[in-house]
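Holo prediction. Input below; ligand is 6-O-phosphono-beta-D-glucopyranose.
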Amino acid sequence: MAKFVPVEPFNLVIFGGTGDLSRRKLLPALFHRYLDDQIRGDTRIIATARSEMSDEDFVEMAREACRASTSDDLWTDDAWSYFSEMLSYAPLDIAAPPEEWNNLADKVGKSDHTVIYYLATSPSLYVKTCGGLEAAGMVNENCRVVLEKPIGHDLSSAQEINDGVCAIFNEDQIYRIDHYLGKEAVQNLMVLRFSNSLFEPLWSRNHIDHIQITVSENLGLEGRAGYYDGSGALRDMVQNHLLQLLCLIAMEPPNSMDADDIRTEKIKVLRALKPVDHTSANRNTVRGQYEEGVVGGKMVRGYTDELGADDSNTETFVALKAEIENWRWAGVPLYLRTGKRMSRRSSEVMIQFKPVAHSIFTTPRNEPNRLVIKLQPDEGVRLFLHIKEPGPGGLQIKSLPLNLSYADNFTVRYPDAYERLLMEVARGNLALFMRRDEVEAAWRWVDGIIEAWQALDSKPERYSAGTDGPLSAAMMLDRDGRVWHKPVTS
Ligand code: BG6
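Structure of the complex:
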């Protein structure tokens, strides 16, 4: 049974408190942490947004949101009624003068609790919100601020946000969220690498042929057309989630679990990424956009149709070949791929080892060893080894996995990434959050790709919804004599 260590009471202000993130993720995450006794009764959760709403109306909205995200066996009206006493609402236009922040300031109160400001708003409001907090006298050394991704849409806008926020909060008060870092299986990447002695001697160009990171989704725009069309898969997924996964796979062992030890190793990986220029963009990147097709047995609309536009140059799929220019990884390609409306929801990291130096077996089936880390769904780790097929005939070799499935080994409920991340903010542990230099290094690399696409006047290649993306993605690997790994199913 997992043990939950209670966190000290805190006061949390959610800007954008009635928005989608707050309703779908933050409030349910807090409620679940309350159900596990991790949050104590004298914690305060104050939502703020522009619309006028009474505390009662907000509590009712929060109840609906939490009920929808809580299974019947965990929900009780009693628990809800205790939890709801922590909730309140303060309407606020963040452009309002300092005196109009008094209502919010009064609700936050003057206790010695840590005060957390969670900015679940558009990034264009981050600096303004921090400025408003400062002008209202609501910033001191007891405060922390949480910034949701995306932090900017390119390097210069990210720097502008970072400059603005860092002028008011110290770096160690700023928690930049990448929710992938809160996922159980993503955290397990570090445990797998750094608490098993087995892998480290093999973890380099000497034994690894190549690495694939796939995050495929079967969903489409989900009502986020406005944001998504201005962003695309590269900015929305690669700049943050996929590059963070790449860092955890490729970084050197950190000296400790201390936040800066980990973040210092991650930034070294980002800085060693070989820049993509116009010539390499042609060979090493693929952009795609989905057309109508069948996903999960249902016909779905194409991207532009869903968007309600005649045309769009935004990619809903991207595949890349990345190279890390350092001693450990020189010559080992890392293929990244992510897309919407693909055949299935599946996120995996696949490490393919080099084949044996000389095969003494004549059997044609001799696939190299693979380590597959399944991030979602069906979290687990599979190590594909060769064994002899039983039987008296000719010697037949089969590749079969040693299967370490989470579901088979743990019967606990897996907390949503936001549950862990919110508790880490309350504890003041920055290890699962991105430092300023990481965010900016990731943008620097991604900006190079965007510039190359612009110079090439590249257009996304169409793929049918419900498939594994455009043909060019398969061809990119084929040129290197490789194929995309097929997701493993249980
Ligand atoms: C978000 C992206 O950061 O991650 C979304 O903005 C994407 O477009 C989502 O759907 C995927 O997260 P998860 O946890 O469902 O894999």
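The chain has a mean pLDDT of 94. That is the main takeaway for now.
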